[in-house]
Design a protein that fits this description.
Blueprint lengths: L11 E2 L10 E7 L3 H15 L3 E3 L8 E6 L4 H18 L6 E6 H5 L1 H7 L5 E3 L7 H9 L4 E3 L22 E5 L1 E2 L10 H5 L3 E2 L2 H13 L4 E5 L7 E2 L13 H5 L2 E2 H11 L4 E5 L8 H9 L6 E3 L7 H6 L6 H14 L4 E8 L6 H14 L3 E6 L7 H5 L6 H24 L5 E9 L6 E5 L5 E5 L8 E9 L3 E9 L4
Parallel strand pairs: 2-3, 2-4, 4-5, 5-6, 6-7, 8-11, 11-14, 15-16, 16-17, 20-22
Antiparallel strand pairs: 1-2, 9-10, 12-13, 18-19, 18-21, 19-20, 21-22
Helix pairs in contact: 9-10, 10-12, 13-15
Amino acid sequence: MEKIIEESKQGESLVLENKPENNKKLYIESYGCAMNFSDSEIVASILSSNGYNTTQVLEEADLVLVNTCSIRDKAEQTIRKRLEKYNAVKRINSKMKVGVLGCMAERLKSQFLEQEKIVDLVVGPDAYKDLPNLLSEVEEGRDAINVILSKEETYGDISPVRLMSNGITALVSITRGCDNMCTFCVVPFTRGRERSREPQSIMAEIQDLYEKGFKEVTLLGQNVDSYLWYGGGLKKDFDKASEIQKATAVNFDHLLEMVAQTFPKMRIRFSTSNPQDMHESVLHIIAKYPNICKHIHLPVQSGSDRILKEMNRLHTREEYMTLVDKIKTIIPGCAITQDMITGFPTETEEDHKDTLSLMEYVKYNFGYMFAYSERPGTLAERKMEDDVPEETKLRRLQEIVDLQQQHSLISCQEFIGETVEVLIDKISKKSAAEFSGRNSQNMTVVFPKENYKIGEFVNVKITSCTSGTLKGEAVGYSEMN
């Protein structure tokens, strides 16, 4: 999902404005996809109303929570190391309680609580409203667990706090769960069935962000193109809805247009899209509104039809290429980014070459590329042998990464001499004399500060680049200010 987030982001400890009446301290870290970071904002909001202020100092915390990712083994190993750290501190601070949230919590609940005894509570992605009750159980000396998956919970009634916010960009969740049973993926088992959030609560959240001065929102979900609101219920049950419900239903292109029309001075992004569910109507909405960013994250996972079928990806190579052609025709200059898995069970050298040839066809702007790691509980783990040698996986992965770097450089070079609109969101990491921001295509742009400010939209003429960054000079404010 994302950003289009990395395999396992370095954990972020998150802080919100404290309430003077609260007398307990919460330390929370998030790993993995953008949904986990969004969920942490919901958790902090719930606990803020139950006596907890957040802290960045682990040693002084009464409650330590880690919001976890199970998408790859590396992510789980990172979190296990953090749990070791927490428990080392806990041996000194005996009042401290440690809890695990998110996907890893759901998958390893018994192991964490009963076998390893390294946490005090385990809370799945749909049970965060039960946190106050679970903490009461912990205070009374009992282990606490709730990982029950819901078919209704969207947290649409929770006003998220903006943790470690730059006050410029924010995530807004629109769907939860996933119905696509890709054989390599744990998400359907850890986050449950796909359901959509009521559109008016989405609009109200964005209105609040706009009034607070935010300039960009990302509509977020495991599969945003499947968004469908018809008065409640799962998408699979839409055929049973009443005629009135069907007539007033809101799908993703309707929602995207509502947001773009209502907030013309805010940039709109979305993630993640599934190729089988992205319809041409969405592309026309993106092309129609200048405040919808010209960037689509379109995970493909493999360029081989045979491997796509083994993965239970419900699109073919040709269907994917046709969709890419439509994107490039309807939205000229649109950036397309990818997720790619190499070394999936039974993958041959010919399958690998199909992936490389697909990359040559699309020439992605950027990508997230991984060697396959077997995830317990998935169909691939239960039915397929992980038979591609590790050295072969790593060699193929390096070839994919090398090719993507070539394409990323080409994509960046195409902007040299062009003027792009940039939303300034921070000071450059490499120089305090420069600002950093992103253009519509989600590419990082760096330029001298001059008299501009964070949060402003400026036009920047691009003069040079690397494979990951555009460099230039500001030439004035854009019309979005």
